[in-house]
Specification:
globular; alpha/beta; 55% helix; binds nicotinamide-adenine-dinucleotide
Length: 290
C-alpha cells in the first residue's frame, strides 16, 4: 500500500486527504489544528503529531498550505519536510504560491511537483479538482494515482513553477468572473427585474460558467461563507500581477480585478468568500448592502 504524509488539512486539504484514504492509500495527516488531525483519524487516516511524524517512511508527501510563508516554513524550515523526507520519496505541493517559491523547493531537492488546484471546496469534496502541474514527466507519471484520487483533470504544463503560472491565469479568470457576475446581479436588481430568473437564463447561455452554476443562489442570498477566502484571492492576484510584470505583458483587467479584491479586504471582507465581491460592487454604487 502506498503511504502518503499529508500536511495542511484545511478547507481543501481535509477532503483531499479523505479521498486519498477512500482510494486505498495509507494517509498520515498533520495540521497545526488538532481538530483537523482528529477528524482525519476518525475517517480512517492516521494522526501525526509533527511534520517529521507525517513525513518519515512516507512514499509520497503532499502539502496543502495557505501561502508562501507557510510552505517555506513547512517544507524548507528546520525540522521541515525536506529534513525528514525519505530518499526517493515524491513531494507534491498542492498549495497556490509564487512560482519562485516552487522553483526554490525544486532546486533544493529532486522529485518535487508544484500542483496547485482549481475547483473549490466542492471540487475537493467530490474529488473532481483540476490540477496544473510543474515538474518532471517521470514524477508526474508517478503521481498520477494521487491526482486521479483527488481530481478529474491533471496536466503537466512545464518545469518547476509552471503549475503556479497556470494557476495564476486561473485565478485571474475566476476573480474577473466574480466581479462581472456581481455587477450583473446589481444591474438586474437595480433595474427591478427578477434577478433570480435572469441568472438562470445567463447560466444556460453563452454567459454561463461554473461560477454561475455553483454560486448564483448563494450570491443572491448574500451568503459569503467561505469557500475561498478573499485574503487568499488577494495573495493570488499579487502572483498574477508579478507574473505579468515578469513576462512584460500589460493586463489592464488583471489590475482592475486585483483592485476589487483589495477593496474587499479593506472593507473587512478578508475572511469571507470571494463571491463577496458583490458587496464591493454594491458599496461602489452607494447602494444599501442586502
Ligand atoms: P485553509 O486555511 O483552510 O487551510 C490551510 C491549513 O494549513 C489550515 O488547516 C492550517 O492550520 C494549516 N497550516 C498552516 N500552517 C501550518 C503549519 N506550519 N503546519 C501544519 N499545518 C499548517 O486554506 P485552504 O482554503 O484549504 O487553501 C489551501 C491552499 O489551496 C491555498 O494556497 C489556497 O490558495 C489554495 N486553494 C484554495 C481553494 C479553496 O476554494 N479554498 C481552491 C483552490 C486552491
Amino acid at each position: 500500500m502506498t503511504s502518503i504524509g499529508f500536511i495542511g488539512l484545511g478547507i481543501m486539504g481535509a477532503p483531499m486527504a479523505r479521498n486519498l484514504v477512500r482510494a486505498g492509500f495509507a494517509v498520515t495527516g498533520y495540521d497545526l489544528n488538532a481538530d483537523a488531525v482528529a477528524a482525519l483519524a476518525a475517517d480512517d487516516g492516521k494522526p501525526a503529531a509533527s511534520i517529521a511524524d507525517a513525513v518519515r517512511g512516507a512514499d509520497i508527501v503532499a502539502t496543502m498550505l495557505p501561502a508562501d510563508q507557510h510552505v517555506e516554513a513547512v517544507v524548507l524550515g528546520d525540522d521541515g519536510v525536506l529534513a525528514h523526507l525519505e530518499p526517493g520519496a515524491l513531494l507534491i505541493d498542492f498549495s497556490t504560491i509564487r512560482p519562485e517559491t516552487s522553483q526554490k523547493i525544486a532546486e533544493a531537492r529532486t522529485r518535487v511537483l508544484d500542483a496547485p488546484v482549481s475547483g473549490g471546496q466542492q471540487g475537493a469534496i467530490d474529488g473532481v479538482l483540476s490540477i496544473m502541474v510543474g515538474g518532471a514527466r517521470a514524477d508526474f507519471d508517478a503521481a498520477k494515482p494521487v491526482f486521479d484520487a483527488v481530481g478529474k483533470v491533471a496536466a503537466l504544463v512545464g518545469p518547476a513553477g509552471a503549475g503556479q503560472f497556470v494557476k495564476a491565469a486561473n485565478q485571474l479568470v475566476v476573480g474577473g468572473t466574480y466581479a462581472l457576475v456581481a455587477e450583473a446581479i446589481l444591474l438586474m436588481e437595480a433595474s427591478g427585474v427578477d434577478a433570480e430568473a435572469g441568472l438562470d437564463v445567463l447560466a444556460g447561455g453563452l454567459a454561463g460558467s461554473r461560477i454561475l452554476e455553483l454560486k448564483r443562489a448563494s450570491m443572491l442570498a448574500r451568503d459569503y461563507t467561505p469557500g475561498f477566502r478573499i485574503d487568499l484571492h488577494h495573495k493570488d492576484m499579487g502572483i498574477v500581477l508579478d507574473a505579468a510584470r515578469q513576462a512584460e505583458v500589460a493586463l489592464p483587467f488583471a489590475f482592475q480585478v486585483a483592485a476589487h479584491v483589495q477593496a474587499a479586504r479593506a472593507q473587512g471582507l478578508g475572511d469571507r468568500d470571494h463571491s463577496g465581491l458583490l458587496a464591493v460592487a454594491e458599496r461602489f454604487s452607494g447602494r444599501e448592502e442586502r
